[in-house]
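Chapter review: from sequence to fold.
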Amino acid sequence: MSESPRVVIADDQALVRTGFSLILAADGIDVVAEASDGDEAIDAVRRTRPDLVLMDIRMPGTDGLEATRRILSGTTPDPPRVIMLTTFDLDRYVYAALTAGASGFLLKDVTPEHLVASVRLARTGDALLAPAITRRLVERFVCRDTQAVALHRDLSVLTPRELEVLRSLGRGLSNAELAACFRLSEATVKTHVARILAKLRLRDRAQAVVVAYETGLITPGAGAPATEL
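The token string follows.
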């Protein structure tokens, strides 16, 4: 993979596509294609094999949610990460997109600095949005969106320690907060998180938060602090 991520921008508004393209290009990020609807986005991904797709949720025809499902369905070799673009952070379609495999979301009024930082962060596979924001979104919509593609996983593959880390991750703790809570180094915490994602076949921390709720490891409103390992 190149040093700078290769990006596809999918949005039905030409001004949004142009604006985001100019911002990313100014920072040396290669926008390899643009799309005005979901079908064009799917085709662009097949043609250009990007590292990341910035995907508007609401587009005419095939919308961003369906396009995300198709791109991440497993039929695309080495699929890119997908960040959803939305005007409203507590959006049930964003939640559905996370359960379908999206790596996070950005508001369309995102600052140029935050846009660039999020796109570059996507290349590392780390969290693309604050875990607390993901948690707030999931708490609002978990078990309510019957059209979402569930991310249920068998948690029995995790060790007791990994279960505690997943529970705390689901509550919105960052790596630094996990390290302080469990009296571990951040490097050790990152190792635990990486093992959890690998065992549960998850691409991102955002999906780990969804799994923690959908499997019942955490119930909405649960706020008890994590225990020491």
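Two observations follow directly from the output. DSSP finds ten helices and five strands in the chain. The two ends are 36 Å apart (CA to CA).
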